[in-house]
Amino acid sequence: MAKIAFILLCHKDPDAIIEQANMLTTKGDCIAIHFDARAKPAHFQKIKTALSDNPNVTFAKKRVKCGWGEWSLVQATLHAVEAACEAFPRATHFYMLSGDCAAIKSANYAHDFLDAEDADYIESFDFFDSNWIKTGIKEERLIYRHFLNERKHKRAFYASMAIQEKLGLTRKIPEDLQIQIGSQWWCLRRRTIEAILEFTRQRRDVMKFFRSTWIPDETFFQTLVRHLIPETEIHARTLTFLMFSDYGMPVTFYNDHYDLLLSQNYLFARKISPEAHELKERLGKMYAASDMQFQISNEGRNLFKFLTGRGRIGRRFASRFWETESTLGRDRELMIVVCKKWHVAKRLNARIRQHTDVPAIDYLFNEDSTDLPDLGGIQARLHKRMRHRRALLRMLFEYHGNDRLLICVDPANIELLQDFCGDRCITRLLEIQCDFNDDYLKGHAKRVGLAGEQTPEGNLSRLLPTIRRDINFESDQIRDAEFENHLILRQSDTAEHMAQQISRFLAVPHDTALDITQPDHLFAD
Questions:
Q1: Distances from the Cα of 225 to the Cαs of 199, 210, 344, in angstroms?
Q2: 140-159: burial string, b at 16+ Cβ within 10 Å, e else
Q3: Minimal CA–CA distance to 59: which of 26, 31, 91, 19?
Q4: Which of 95, 178, 269, 377 could form a disulfide bond with 241, CB atoms 3.0-4.6 angstroms apart?
């Protein structure tokens, strides 16, 4: 059975650290603590005294002063790992935590999870080829020597880097290493930890290199695990659930996040608010429970993106040059079916293809799997289609040899509609307004990743009003844009009225429009 040695790096709130250590050791696991040497000595003494009778707690023999982005964080981790290896010879896994972390699964669940597969869990992606680093310096982290903290000595930090660049003082990365990058919150097996410790004793050149890199806690363990362990024994993921805002700040969890956290496919979460006392208490009881059942839906990140995005409606960036560089053609007709229920628009498209010669394409800007001809690669990925959307439509006009083209667009893509309706070509919109019952909205939430099959019914019910308001808001945006040639087809319309709208939209005879709208299953769910 798995026995976890938690590696805890902390620097504040001694009462919370004592509580965290006692909770994590209640089911037979153990913990090694490194308390920042910058912290108050009285705080460290309080922690040692309170935990002195707990045989499953040990402390790093050496304490260092830690600074964000510095080698000191790696050194502190190594000191705690060494203490854990010595004090707990039966520990099978070593799990990296901070004082802001909390368990979101029971100890029994965590043990069963780690027993199920003989593997290490650590984010490790190629430093140069991946897009893991979103902002700031990249290769400069490695090729220059960093002895100053960028946060404390910003001007001197960048001046030092500029001098090294000017004098050509770049350095080589150790030739046998492929630098990896990822989250510092890992869970490694004992033999992996022992291999790393032996490596640190044998390879002084590598240690010297990493000591003067910037933010080495995101590269040191990640690189060494990939160097020492077969790829088949590594899962490039963290078992700690964490999210970041658009501004790179970690998302903080509060008392009302309990159900959300338990439904994620992770063992721990961070950051837990220091004020979330109720949440910590509930998570502590859950961790010690023996009969907990977990419904994993794992929609946390998508749900966060969806809900926070509602507050940013109206943010508009300037159009890219490739979006506006040329027209689709004055004499061409672009017909756009706008519908939230994609299956309804696809049924209408199929009928239009059956009764007219108009090329009708499904949601090419929303679905990666939309059937498209080979256009030299521009159609290969959604981001390429969106980025080069006008060029893509021009190529589709030419491919089909037709000056008329019909596409489907989700009503959320208001900027796409504004772009196309602002073109010199003749553009017509047919907005299909469907009825949305609760069952459909629940299915929609699952399809777009806001919920999963195991999401509790209560969570879904609380989410439905937000989704319904969002759908109504999208329709209001389209109406407020006052597009020319904007036609509306409602689910409650009579067959005759539907035919009139289809006739105007497609510029086809009324009888043809009647044939297109003839099936009574168009709006069936």
A1: 11, 15, 50
A2: bbbbbbbebbbeeeeeebee
A3: 31
A4: 269
Closest-CA residue to 292 (of 262, 254, 265): 262
Query: Position of tokens 């497609």?
Result: 506
Q: Which residue has the tokens 């409606």?
A: 313
DSSP label at residue 257: G
Which position has the token pair 């806690």?
A: 217
Other Cβ atoms within 10 Å of 134 Cβ, number: 8
> Which one, of 349, 361, 355, lies nearest residue 389 by Cα?
361
DSSP 104: S
491: DSSP letter: T
- Distance of alpha carbon 23 from alpha carbon 414, whole angstroms: 50
CB-CB contact of 287 with 103 (8 Å): yes
Sign of CA dihedral 127, 132, 133, 135: positive
Q: How far apart are CA 512 and CA 490, in angstroms?
A: 19
Longest dimension (CA), the chain: 88
CB atoms under 10 Å from CB of 293, counted, come to 7
Backbone angles phi, psi at 481, to 5 degrees: -70, -20
The token pair that represents 341 in the structure block: 């229920």
* Among the listed residues 520, 487, 219, the one whose alpha carbon sits nearest the alpha carbon of residue 336: 487
Q: Which residue has the tokens 């539907």?
A: 498
- Contact in structure between 400 and 359 (CB atoms under 8 Å): yes
The number of beta carbons lying within 10 Å of the beta carbon of residue 90 is 9
* Separation of alpha carbons 89 and 52, rounded Å: 19
CA–CA separation, 86 and 80 (whole Å): 10
Q: Cα dihedral sign for 435, 436, 438, 442?
A: positive
Tracing tokens 């099978």 back to the chain, one arrives at 92
- pLDDT tens track, the chain, 525 positions: 899 999 999 999 999 999 999 999 999 999 999 999 999 999 999 999 999 999 999 999 999 999 999 999 999 999 999 999 999 999 999 999 999 999 999 999 999 999 999 999 999 999 999 988 877 899 999 999 999 998 889 899 999 999 999 999 999 999 999 999 999 999 999 999 999 999 999 999 999 999 999 999 999 999 999 999 999 999 999 999 998 776 566 788 888 888 889 999 999 999 998 888 899 999 999 999 988 889 888 877 787 777 666 554 443 334 433 333 457 888 899 999 999 999 999 999 999 999 999 999 999 999 999 999 888 788 888 988 998 888 889 889 988 889 999 999 999 999 999 999 988 899 999 999 999 888 888 888 887 778 877 788 877 888 888 888 888 999 999 999 889 899 999 988 888 999 999 999 999 999 999 989 876 677 776
Q: Which residues contact 472 (CB under 8 A, 6 or more apart)?
A: none
Q: Which two tokens stand for residue 34?
A: 């490194």
257 — phi, psi (to 5°)? -100, 10
Q: Is the dihedral of CA 122, 127, 132, 137 positive or negative?
A: positive
